[in-house]
Amino acid sequence: MEPFYYFYPLFGTVGFVQAITLGTLLMVLNRPKYRSTLYLGLLLILFALGLVPRILDSLGTFERYPDLYLLPFDFFWFYFPIFYLYTQHACIFSNQKKKFWVLYPGIIVFFLQLYVFFLPYETKLNLVQTLAFDAYTLIKLSYGLGIGIYTLKLLNRHKVEVYNYFSFVKSKELNWSRIYMTFAIIGSLVYTILIRTIPDSHFARLFFLSFDLILIYWISYHGVQQRNVRSLLAKKKEFDLRRAKSIDESEGSSKHKKSMQELMQQIHEHMATSESYTHPELTVVDLAEKLNTHPKRISAAINSIENQNFNAYINSLRVKKMEKLLKNEEVDKLSIEGIGYEVGFHSKSAFYSAFKKFTGTTPSKYKEDMMAQHR
Question: How does the average pLDDT of the chain come out, rounded?
Answer without folding.
Answer: 87
